[in-house]
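Incident review: delayed structure delivery

Summary: a single-chain prediction request sat in the queue longer than the usual turnaround. Root cause was a stuck worker, restarted by the on-call engineer. No data loss occurred. The affected request and its eventual output are reproduced below so the record is complete for anyone auditing the incident later.

Affected input:
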Amino acid sequence: MVDLQSQYAKIKDVVDSSIEEVLSSSTYINGPLVHQFQADLENYLDVKHVIPCANGTDALQIAMMGLGLEQGDEVITADFTFAATVEVIALLKLTPVLVDVEADTYNIDIDALKKAITPKTKAIVPVHLFGQVANMEAVLEIAKEHNLYVIEDNAQAIAADYTFANGTKQKAGTIGHVGTTSFFPSKNLGCYGDGGAIFTNDDDLAHTLRGIVNHGMYTRYYHDVVGVNSRLDSIQAGVLKAKLPHLDSYCEARRNAARFYNNAFANNPNIITPTTKSCGAICDTCNCHVFHQYTLQITNGKRDALHKHLLENDIPNAIYYPVPLHAQKAYADERYNENDFTVTNKLIETVISLPMHTELEKDQLEFITQTILDFV
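Output delivered after worker restart:
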């Protein structure tokens, strides 16, 4: 699904140099490379504060801790996504409220979001799934109307742009009150272990978050807030610093692969290709989709058989996601009605994700697409 070895080979010298710098200096935690990467990412995203942390799940948890959400507060998020999003809500003894997603973008459905708001609602967590930014303009309007926090789960869409109705653009993860991301190795910007970060333009919130990630300390051994141990180590920061200058080209390589896939599948009635909501096409001007995953819908009932067929032909593929969050044992709740999740319940039966990374070559893409077309 991801060819990290070939990607590494192209930037080996600068990555190895960064790692050697850490080993030579022995500044493994909060070393100079962490601060340099933080500054580079702030500049790239045009955001005032980047707070690095140990992983993307921690980033979500720390963001919610920093906002002062209290036990029993309701937090609305999408039903069709990875469990980390709802996991941290439950861990903090908040009340997760899951809602359906849009049939075309797989992002949070705005009408379902509106219906889910109650007097106990305190925050919304839009997930920019598979690399496409959710409808943030509508989310912000709803949040403003109801005095709610917006916490962006940007684990899959770093580098994507959101274009507002007035034509202005903003990077995913920097639009709400606070944004979070993951640097898991397979991400568009991935390190060689675990890593994450939190983004905000709020000076006071940033100060709180910096304390939380480091045991609640601003001065060593003086604990001003309840914190956790969640720091990005210097080696991972060095890898990320080396890769950040290539992020835009990485995303363009993914879009090129997505264009090839889309063109190959365009005339097949049994295949629905991904939608790019902002412009309706995969173009260079809007950058609304960075294709962390390339996810098809197979509409003729042969998704599971195709999954098996591809594996038999040595073509990696995955089903993201086979079980909706509302049906998971850990998050099942009698409040949920299956009729409220019609889109999600359809997607889990039809979606399949194909290889998507920066190193895909034409002959590989041709083999993948032809194998799928012959079968479907």
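Verification: Residues 247-375 form a domain with the Aspartate Aminotransferase, domain 1 fold (CATH 3.90.1150.10).
Action items: add queue-age alerting; document worker restart procedure.
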